[in-house]
Amino acid sequence: MLPALVFELLPIFGFLLCVSTGFYLWIMRKKQKDAFAGIYVVQCLDFAYGISLFYAGFHGCFISANSDDNSAIQPVDCLYRAIHISLWCVLDLSNFIVIFLLCFDQLVSVIWTKKHKVINSLYMSQKFILAMVTLSMVILVPAWNFPLSQSDNSTIRVSPFCTIESVFSSKFYRNELNMRQYAPLIGVIMLSLAGFSLLVFQLLQNWSFKWSDNNEEAERFYFFVLTRCIMLLAVVHFPLYVLSSHINRQDPILEILLRIAYAVMFGLLEPITLFKLFPEYRTEFYSFFLRYSHNTKRTWQSAEDPPESKEDVGKEGLDFGSWYSSAGNIIGEAGVPYEMNADKQKSVSFYYNEMEKV
Hints:
By secondary structure, this protein is mainly α. It folds into 2 domains: 4-290, Rhodopsin 7-helix transmembrane proteins (Rhopdopsin 7-helix transmembrane proteins, Up-down Bundle); 304-358, no CATH class. It has helices at 4-27, 35-66, 78-81, 83-111, 116-123, 126-135, 140-149, 164-168, 170-204, 215-243, 252-277, 279-290. The relative contact order is 0.11. The chain crosses the membrane at residues 6-27, 39-65, 85-108, 128-146, 182-201, 221-244, 256-278. Keywords: Membrane, Transmembrane, Transmembrane helix. This is G_PROTEIN_RECEP_F1_2 domain-containing protein.
């Protein structure tokens, strides 16, 4: 049985990822053109990832509370009980498809600068990227092959926690983990080739090579894609390296820790990267918080507020109009009259002392 504490933490990290990505999706919803189209899709994937962590956490807590160490179910039952493991596989492949497109776009923009806009319009539209993300569901074919093919075999039972390795087979899990470990390296290689080509062209043209309509924006986007590739490598390799001497690779808790590492990396560090690299994001960020703080003047009146001062009460300009004097005595219309109005019997006492009654 996996520790219940692990599953209790998953919704927290899922919430972190949903908040950080959801904030970006909201404030940048009107800026989804050119490079930002790819970033927007990536943030949508991370938002879905956060939701899957929510579900995984609650699923694990439910199983912990309602199962014992001897509980077991058929692998096919996990397909509808633990939908998060299928979603994780789809999101993993989607992530690398989108990253590959973004890295390829960087390479095209340097090598085929003049034709970049024409080529870019073929694969960097949001519709095409979403179509590729939908196509990534093809990974479910090999994933579901084992549980579906063994659905009639009642002797094959797995833990109700439904780990990827036990449900989709250990062979599939090894291949899927290898994809997460090494696929981002393809992106790093493509970006390295693009960077080297750019350096050569700049040297040949005395640092006047124009590889985009806006070189500064293109550079920022290049560093964002490179940073994301490095993060994708780090969230797998770093935990595997640190935990290799403590946890076996077949231990189900390792996969949970890898997912938590992903949520921390892209829920905390990537928003900082976006904030530092893109002034458009900073502008929208500040605008969002200033939108509700520019007018803080209170327009309503509390019952405990002193009455508003009136111009015709007196000429002494006291701090609280005609209600309080600077010495603390009650003066004016409801108390001791002003000297100039002493002959007019308009004032009445509004204090009534019960002790004076006879």
